[in-house]
């Protein structure tokens, strides 16, 4: 699916954020990620508070999968939290998400396996520094992928799933010289990260043309 977001004509300022892998009601994730919470309930409170500290009612959030492990009586509390979160949320499915359960949560503006987000915004010209209208592409999937649309034109790949595990070890080279980011909440202080931060962090990486990659 393609999502076009035009931030240049808004009367009120809007922002676009990314996050993933809340793993609500997943007790083992506290140990797995070394999450700094006494229990999952403290984690849920922190996730909600930190989201609403940075995301406003008019903002857009791309959530990249693995929302919860809730069962039975815990499911309504997950939905309740989603409705308390600010902004419009577009959901990208993770491996632990069940499509029927996610669709039942009416908060989500869309539910996708893959989402291309095109953000039209004002950005300084690389030569003059003068602000101009620019369209930036973010290719969003729960899983990290090796190639993505318009990579050679400077687009960004946003993913979750990995919990930071491929930032080190034999797969660490995956990120070197590539405009790709793991937006798992555990890597960003359990707070959604804005598209501007993604660009500030990765935009310094040179774009490799198709001929440079041969």
Provide the fold topology:
Layout (H helix, E strand, L loop, with lengths): L1 E5 L9 E4 L8 H5 L7 H15 L5 E4 L11 H10 L3 E5 L6 H6 L3 E5 L1 E11 L6 E11 L14 E4 L20 E3 L10 E2 H8 L12
Parallel strand pairs: 1-6, 2-3, 3-4, 4-5, 7-8, 8-9
Antiparallel strand pairs: 2-10, 6-7
Tally the helices: what do you get? 5
Q: Give the end-to-end Cα distance, rounded to a whole number of Å.
A: 30 Å
Number of DSSP E strands: 10
CATH names the topology as Purple Acid Phosphatase, chain A, domain 2
Helix fraction by DSSP (H/I, runs of at least 4): 10-25%
Structural class of the helices, strands and pairings? Answer: alpha/beta
Q: If you average the pLDDT, what whole number results?
A: 93
Largest sheet: 5 strands, mixed
Which stretches are low in confidence, meaning pLDDT under 50 for 5 or more residues running?
none
Query: Helices and strands, in N-to-C order?
Result: EEHHEHEHEEEEEEH
CATH superfamily grouping:
Metallo-dependent phosphatases
């Amino acid at each position: 699916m393609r999502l076009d977001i035009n931030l240049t004509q808004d009367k009120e300022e809007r922002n676009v954020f990314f996050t993933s892998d809340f793993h609500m009601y997943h007790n083992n994730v506290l140990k797995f990620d070394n999450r700094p919470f006494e229990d999952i309930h403290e984690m849920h409170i922190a996730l909600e508070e930190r989201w609403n500290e940075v995301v406003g009612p008019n903002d857009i959030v791309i959530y990249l999968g693995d929302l919860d492990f809730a069962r039975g009586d815990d499911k309504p509390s997950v939905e309740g939290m989603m409705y308390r979160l600010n902004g419009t949320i577009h959901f990208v499915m993770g491996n632990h998400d069940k499509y029927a359960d996610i669709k039942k949560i009416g908060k989500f503006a869309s539910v996708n396996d893959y989402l291309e987000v095109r953000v039209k915004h004002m950005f300084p010209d690389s030569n003059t520094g003068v602000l101009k209208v620019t369209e930036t592409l973010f290719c969003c999937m729960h899983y990290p992928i090796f190639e993505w649309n318009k990579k050679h034109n400077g687009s960004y790949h946003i993913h979750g799933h990995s919990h930071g595990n491929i930032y080190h070890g034999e797969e660490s080279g995956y990120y070197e010289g590539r405009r790709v980011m793991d937006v798992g909440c555990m890597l960003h202080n359990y707070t959604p990260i804005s598209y501007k931060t993604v660009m500030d962090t990765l935009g310094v990486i040179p774009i490799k043309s198709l001929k440079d990659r041969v």
